[in-house]
Amino acid sequence: MDSKPTRPPRRPPPLPSKTSGMWPVALLVLLCFASLPLFLALSRARPSLSDVSQMGVTVIVRDGFFVNAEDPAATPPESSPASRDRLLGGLLSPDIGESACLSRFQSSLHHKPSPHSPSPYLVSQLRKYEALHRKCGPGTLFYKKSLMQLTSAYSMGLVECTYLVWTPCGGSHLGDRMLSMASAFLYALLTHRVFVVHFTDDMAGLFCEPFPAASWELPAGFHVHNLTQLGRGSEHSYANLLGAKKIKTDDPAGVRSESLPSYAYVHLEHDYQQPDHLFFCDDDQTVLAKVNWLILRSNLYFTPGLFLVPQFEDELRWMFPARDTVFHHIGRYLFHPSNKVWELIARYHTSYMAKFEEKIGIQIKTFAGSKVSSEEYFKQTVACTSQEKILPEIDPNATSSANEAALATTASKAVLVSSVQSSEYAEKLKAMYYEHTTVTGDSVSVLQPAGAGKQAPNQKALVEMFLQSYCDVSVVSGRSTVGYVGHGLAGVKPWLLLTPTNQTAAANPPCIQATSMEPCFHAPPSYDCRAKKAGDLGAVLPHVRHCEDVADGLKLYD
């Protein structure tokens, strides 16, 4: 008879530890410290760094965030902005390490999440482009083979890699260059070309590499010399090649690559003329696609012109269902400040901007030849912010000391002022709100990025553009490319300070809100390729119309 299995003896419960009664107290203390950051984040009047210090908690700044100094390994809690999608809805590839480019992963954490998501098709095309750049970019075997082809007089058919080299215009502002680079990259994306950038000394060290495992920088020793000296009259300019019959567009489909020059220079500066305008024609694009190397020089945001090319229409429609988001997506994909520049941006934002509930960016540019005094332009700016309820009006009968108690309990606003004359405008605005209370009781703090004397001009401009992109509301001078970049990266529709029609008086009305956040193409072509004659290109397509701030310019609208 089988015996039943015996059950192991039951162990007695462990005796209570002498310290077990302390665990509820320890847990309560731990929860108090853990909930402190959440309490600070949800508090209506968020404390400043000095306020936190007075609470007995020492904090330091790490990667643009306040963290507890007692725990050097601490990271921002999951409920903080750090839990947001740092790859921007798939716009950015995860294949670049964070330490190589801190801004790539941290910049989006300094402002509210964008309501504009990239289309799945744009994301897929960017991943395909990155694979192409890894295969054909500078330093690869295919790149070296393609360089050898440049020494030939003609292009070659059936090549695996074709290239677009962007080179800056001498004397152009960094804002102009960034807008031009974004347009050039989009053109490379549309035409399956490898995008290579000629960085001049004044642009060195500004940006991270945007593409994983490959460089976008044109190496030294390029076979075409003096790139910055290329111009409208250059022998290899597309207009001159057409005039000399070295490129013919009578039968675009029948043109063979072997009959075309090894490279062509595309001149899209503000002074380009009618033959250069043919770049935006369908037949000309069919022929240019067979030239192995294109060198492009521009100081314009020529993206709206690409939407006028019929063969690009479907691709652009799939990439950008919302047509007024082109620069918002391409700019955030392409431009990431280097770690050196990012340190300046993150430090300023954390120290001065992060504590405010609402941030208003004002970017003022005065143009050469304007006879409107700075005082008149300041009045126009104040009139805009007051009439449109962007900033509260002041109470001329009440000094700032009369309502200090009320100010301490109201929502705070920060105004970031950027301009070549920013010191003058910022000081006037600061004095106005310092000497008088506001009719709403809101407190207004005026901020001005410092360091003009310590930073190179382009570095200072890049810092200011990114700080402007962290603002919730944007007020910018019409025609300002610096303003275009700032509000374009932010994804907001700006208030445009209109250019005075009277040479000595400020504009009235002082400003209008743009109906599109896209930059303006200041000098579009005047030749209508479809009609084969001069025409108004602002009337060809419903989503390509004239700009609010430049009557002859073109802009994308959704």
UniProtKB/TrEMBL annotation:
The keyword Transferase applies. One of its GO terms (biological process) is cell wall organization. It is found in: Golgi apparatus, Golgi stack membrane. One of its GO terms (molecular function) is galactoside 2-alpha-L-fucosyltransferase activity. Keywords: Cell wall biogenesis/degradation, Glycoprotein, Glycosyltransferase, Golgi apparatus, Transferase. Its EC number is 2.4.1.-. It comes from the Eukaryota. Pfam families: XG_FTase. Its main location: Golgi. It is an enzyme of class 2 (transferase). The keyword Glycosyltransferase applies. InterPro entries: XG_FTase. May be involved in cell wall biosynthesis. PANTHER family: FUCOSYLTRANSFERASE, FUCOSYLTRANSFERASE 2-RELATED. Belongs to the glycosyltransferase 37 family. This is Fucosyltransferase.
